[in-house]
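Response to reviewer comment R2.3. The reviewers asked that we include at least one raw input/output pair. We reproduce the pair for Protein MON2 homolog here without editing.
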Amino acid sequence: MTRTLGLELLESVLSSYPSVFIKHSEFAQLLKDQVCPLIIKLFAPNHKQMQITSQHPCAPNTHVSLDSVSPQTSSSPERVYFPISMRLLRVIVILITLYYNLLVTECEIFLALLVKFLESDKLGWQRAIALEVLHKIVISPELLIWFCENYDAKPNATKAISSIVSGLAAYVQLSFLHLDVSETSTFIVEKIFFVDLINKCKCICPFNALSHCVVNREYTSRIISASKDDEQFEANVQSGSQPGFQYRDVWIPLCQNITSKKSLLLDSLEKHEAMNLPNGYSLSLTYYCVVNCCQSVFEATESLLSRKEKKDIARELYQSTYPSLLAATSLFLDASVDESITEQLLKCFVTMTLLSCRLGHTTGRDAAYFALCKASLPRKYLVRITSASGGLSAIPGSLTSPNSHLEKDALSGSKMEKVENESVSSQPCQIIAVGTVCPTPSLPLSFYSGTVMLTAKNVQVAHILISSAEANGQDLGDCWHLVLTSIQHLVWILGMTPSMQGGFRSDGEIIDGTSLVTGPHSNANVLTTAAMADVPVVSAMLNKLFDSTTKLDDVALHHVIAALCKLSSEAMTVSQNGSREPSFFPVAKLQQTGMANLARLEVFWRPLTAHLIEVSGHPYAKLREWGAQALTVLVKSALKIKTAAEESKRQQLILSPLSSMSEIEYTDVRRKQIECLVNVLQSSGQQLTSDQWPTVIETVRVVVAGKLSYDEILVKQSYEALALMITDFLEVLPFHCIQLLVETDAKYGSQQCELNISLSALGQLWAISDFVYRNTPKISRKESETIWLVLYNCLSELCVDVRPPVRKSACQTLLQTIVAHGLALKPETWQHMVWKILFPMLDKVRTLTLSASTTRTNSSILGASNILIHHSRDTESKQWVETSVQTLSGIVKIFNAQRTLLLALDDFAAIWTTLLRYIEYLAASDNSEMTLAAFKSFQTFEELALIHCLYTLYMQLYFSSVSGNEEGTNLPEQLWIASWKSWMTMSRTLVLTKSFKVDIPSDSLTSLSRRGEERFIPGQMHLITLLHIFTTIFERVRKKISCDDLKYDEVPSVLK
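Raw output as returned:
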């Protein structure tokens, strides 16, 4: 019997009666003791080196020891007998697929021998037939589970699955990279990446993955010197629309209709020699092995996860397969020039990313997403970015170091354009966009001068990347940074600029056609019409991605926000010196993410708004505009969304960042802040709780009261908010905020930027005083009087403003307010107002009048230019004269209006005497207007006393109960005597022009009577007023004055 016949009979028995061997231990033992050793002996790796003289299994020469065969024996192809090798592999397929439960050790040996057949020192048909066998194995999820449980998952055992998948990945390298020696190290680097990620995350497999996944130098040399009988691929020959792969000018077609049920070599039972394989058959087999293996791993993992006790096995299965599967898939994807192949490979990536997330395998997740991100960008783009930055999301430093010539070319400052053009010239890729490198802090400035090209395949991968991130966002963790970085670079190259209204706009130059020939263009971004069709699709997918963050839990949402904040910080670093415009993608998507998750703003609000405040304070104008826009949009929207949190705390959380914007020095940002505040008041002002109003008022106050500068536009905007609060929200404001509102309004009255606002603010103080007066019964007396004192104090300070119109308006408002609402104050409060507010105001006016300039000035002091000024007001001194007259006249009228209250004060005598001193001081002025005003004020003052006396007399005549209180209600005699003495002093100063000294503050420079070179000549009105006063006072004091006052030198000389 020949060996071929024996092997066929053995195959027939084993395939037809597996139940016999499984049920009867005798037959099972026969398999172990007789069949398997024979198969192993015939299938030994160096069996091809033996001279086969007989095909009978019992022939003497078959028992020659394999170890005795010299390794130098010639290994010509004729010595490897195809019919026996093919039938041996058919038997092995049956043993592995049907009897694996009985042959644990033997299957391990068979698998190791199969992997050996993939090495480069084997013949081409040997590698192809081994791939056919492996294809039948990897399509079975049950087999993979069993292998993992019995080999890979056991300590100190052979990693069978890892060996198989690593052998497939090594064969992909053999097929592609022996075509170009210079690319070998690049593949090795990518293989190192997937294994090094394991070490980085301390998830090292219990086996030496490098022995399977990483091709060492010796093995690489064997790849390069592969035997000449391999399939020969033709350069740049692609037949029609046949799918396939192209790598470095070499076209490798994809043989279709390859299945595990029909094999070219394993089913060649009638052939005595291996048939000539179709071009690309072995690589096509490897491609289907990799694709089917991904699917089988997914199904096996799903099955294991359904049984909770098998989760560790599922994790080990993924651990054993993902490094090599990702490396092989990445290389296939890099070489793919067919959309359907690319789509199938991307399904593998989706499968691997989904499994890594379900298993919580962070290393595998990072590796899978790195491969996807790398494929979504121009060739070598992401590698350069990660190499320059020293690592992105745990990317190892060895990623670029083995490829020194690339590192030197990419990172030493050479232009990127040359490298990119070389990389795309060898593939018939559809280039749909040409753009610049997205600015990154780690890249040298010279790196931005070149252009990069985006292909249709890049965009196709990007679609999968975005969809996968949306599906697995819950489990991405730190990998969000890598994903969002890649998306940011993609939209930059596509010229997709975020819009403040939402979405993207394309700023690139549009070229008709579906493909783009590389060459110089006038614009930074050049897009084909095909790319313009992709832009809305990518934009919609990105919007969906960030809107879907509502489905993430709190931790995952924080990872998204942290990644966007990190990208935004990089953009801030790029634009620090203003040499490059950064990407606004991170800030725009921070806004979108925040808007999508406003229902749980308590989770993310503080870190997100803190970063936006930092962006808003950036020196680069466009960037801080984005930051302010995002922050204010979030604040306005957040107030409209109700959450489960307590309303007061929720509003405080929302308004806190808006208030913090007051610390930013840039006025454009604070304009956005105030614009937002006005919008909040208009839309949600009635819903604000009492705790938030101090924050709102303080935000408006600090515009003009803080240390930062402001301009006219900002003042107008902020005053609009203040006026809105006064006109619409006084009724809902908590009463303790009224005081803060008065002080804030007074600050706007004193600001020097806009005169009209200052005058309008004074009118608002009058409105507030009316409101307080109407609501006095609703509040305590103490609260009411506190507000009144604050209001009057603010008005008194405005009465000494440097601008005459403001001073005049303040005086009028103060007078009207006290006259109208003075009765609301207690006598004790009136004492405070007289001594702490009114008299200090007169002191300030007197001091400022003394120090005022007598030089002619322009109209700018009035707060407006190009206004003609009357000669009586063309100096500061003359303008302060008017203020002096107004303030004194106003206070006298206040005394007149509130005489009943004032006369009841215990210290009224001191008040009377002090006011007389101010009148005497003004009468001693060398200014006719001030002197006349002093006399008229004195006249009004004395008429006040006289009217009160007449009123008292009237009460005595008709109400007998008053008769006993005459002394208490009439003006005391000593005050009439004091008034007489004041009249004498003022009349002597006016008529007899005697020197007159008045006690004035030490900081005043000189007496008013000495400021002019010549005294004025009193007019008729001065003398008439003086005489009117004399008749009133003399009638009251004629019986009380001393005779000395009637001597010729005194009263007679004055009257004369």
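Strands lie at 244-247, 250-253, 431-436, 451-455, 496-498, 504-506, 509-511, 526-528. The CA atoms of residues 142 and 375 lie 32 Å apart. Further pairs are available on request from the corresponding author.
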